[in-house]
Amino acid sequence: MNKYILVTKEMTWQDAQEYCRQTYVDLATVDNMDDLNQLVDLADGVGIWIGLHDFNRKSMDSYPNSWRWSTQTRSQTGYMNFASGQPNYNGARQECVRMTSHGTWADAACSDQDKFVCFSGPSSAKTYHHVSQTVSWESAKSYCRTHYTDLAKIENQAENQQVSSLVTTSSWIGLSRVPWTWSDGSNGSFRHWEAGEPDNKEKRQFCTLIVGGAIADTYCQSQKQFICMAMFKVSGNDVKMKSKKVSEEHMLFLFLSSDGCFSGQHRKQGLQPELERSADKTRAGRLEP
Ligand SMILES: [Ca+2]
Ligand SMILES: [Ca+2]
């Protein structure tokens, strides 16, 4: 189980990330239902930021959630030709790319049925092949891998023109991405979305919070309480935070149970238990500012 700290001061997602990185480790990563349930308890019904975000919707760099060609090798050039306003991750369900009849690109739902373009030959001298069957992006990829090399990979304007000359109605090309990534760089695939979420409302919900018992995407500029990942050093009976930079408004309590697991609990002001010790090494402490 991951170890968490609730910070009750409200901040934007990015300020919260900065705060967690400076004070603890990072914004919270959630790896399983046990983690999630801890956070739901900590949140006590209030929406709280966690580390899951999707900032890299328009990039083709090394972020886990940026665009990739379906081929084994990455783009040599990083060339992209998205239409104005694209990619927009409309409805939080557009993870594949089609070429429009204008030769520009747009992200679209991978389950949509489209014609598609494959390529064959070496990367430096690709030959493109248009297939007028209409299928999902995955089916198009399988077809291309069976009959040619892969779905069309486009690395410069000349290649884009070659493909464009074959495309009269929208057709899949080989670009896709896996959305959402954790702030701490871990690649955990746990997601437990609230019903109807994520929805990328207004096409600008890049950050996530826990609300109720599940995860939802929302505007990063909202002011929310948040959850940091805590790092603890345990030697003998000593329990140390990575940092003690915790102010009074961020009161929190750490409990070390007899099985060695920590949990953090937020307590409302006025309830300030003293440091406790017991023979079985159970210890609870309030972090002083
Ligand atoms: Ca789109
Ligand atoms: Ca949403």
Automatic annotation (TrEMBL):
Does the record carry Electron transport as a key word?
Answer: no
- UniProtKB keywords: Disulfide bond
The keyword Disulfide bond is annotated on this UniProt entry: yes
What's one Pfam family the UniProt record gives for this protein? Answer: Lectin_C
Q: Where is the C-type lectin domain?
A: 1-119, 123-229
Basic and acidic residues bias spans: 274-289
Q: What is this protein called?
A: C-type lectin domain-containing protein
Lineage at the top is: Eukaryota, Metazoa, Chordata, Craniata, Vertebrata
